[in-house]
Amino acid sequence: MRIAVLGTGMVGRAIAARAAELGHDVVVGTRDVATTRGGEWGEWAAAHPGVTLTGYADVATGADLVVNATSGDGSLPALDAAGADNLAGKVLLDIANPLDFGKGFPPTLSVLNDDSLGERIQRAFPRTRVVKALNTLTADLMTHPGQLAGGDHSVFVSGDDADAKKVVTELLTSFGHTDVIDLGDITTARGTEMLLPIWLRLYGRLGTPMFNVKVVR
Amino acid sequence: MRIAVLGTGMVGRAIAARAAELGHDVVVGTRDVATTRGGEWGEWAAAHPGVTLTGYADVATGADLVVNATSGDGSLPALDAAGADNLAGKVLLDIANPLDFGKGFPPTLSVLNDDSLGERIQRAFPRTRVVKALNTLTADLMTHPGQLAGGDHSVFVSGDDADAKKVVTELLTSFGHTDVIDLGDITTARGTEMLLPIWLRLYGRLGTPMFNVKVVR
């Protein structure tokens, strides 16, 4: 399928590379194409010639699946730039976390408890089918989960649209995920976004981001 | 050792029973002894004759370890009633979660993000050595983790005092826990308390509280 990825950071590049490797038609969107080309994207793009770079305004056109891999505070502006009409009816895999680094490390959350970034995006784009997923593990494990314990660990999907969750679950399974847990509607994104505080502490304690939780049951 | 448990609910009874089973001298504290005896405690106590019931004011006297198994909003009042002098120098295993049921189910958290109930208790009782632990799983699995996957899942300790964490870790190990992760100082309790939102959703989704997370690394 045609996959549009918003964001050119570690997460965006990891998803784009993996999706291209699996044979999808991948386009990555950025705020300013010239600035992105002049940065670390240039080197990465040379090794990934199948991935196209474009501005946010065009990225979602013709996409079957849109991936939000921007930072938490950059998500709504990026999606606004992509255009509500372009996003209408589409499945949006939202990977962003609303991290606030204003008080240093570890960051706090800027949205939580009785709301989530996933819900904010769903409210702002009611015609788009938002699925929160993959925001609970490091980019390398999002895309190549088999590197850790042969993939024997868990990821989650949250969203209001069952068909959209099916599309995302199939993509995750194609990445190698073996335990995709459907938590329920988009309000369950509160739970996965609020996993970040313990994730950040475990990262500090274990000295590596190559870990994940498994829901043992 | 002598273990004082504050709280006569499911968690308090589970901890008291398990500690007594392991040969500890166990006393349970409650706000009003007569009222507690008249409730479901009576039947439970008949099956656990080795466990003594007393008021909060006396429960911590002579204890080696104090366990806070009260509700989140009942924790500071119960500890106040137990007395700062009686708690001074002691290890306090804090299992409570600051759940707010004011908006129905699932509850939100009343303390979070840049604070936690564990930290509030540590600030209120600076002479007590607070260790947050066991607040991330159901009572049955706190005390008998081997029931699930032979105990192959994780629990966490957070606290400022290394010796106190060692005492709690040894207790948890004696219960059957095989993976006790020391997250760091008491501020890391934010992470484990903020696990509750996903725990509650998983409970709803799986239809049983007999699950836990394993940190795969």
Automatic annotation (TrEMBL), chains A, B:
Protein name from the UniProt record: NAD(P)-binding domain-containing protein
A GO MF term: oxidoreductase activity
Domain Pyrroline-5-carboxylate reductase catalytic N-terminal: 2-98
Pfam families: F420_oxidored
UniProt keywords, alphabetically: Oxidoreductase
Gene3D superfamilies tied to this protein: NAD(P)-binding Rossmann-like Domain
Source superkingdom: Bacteria
Residues making up the signal peptide according to the UniProt record: none
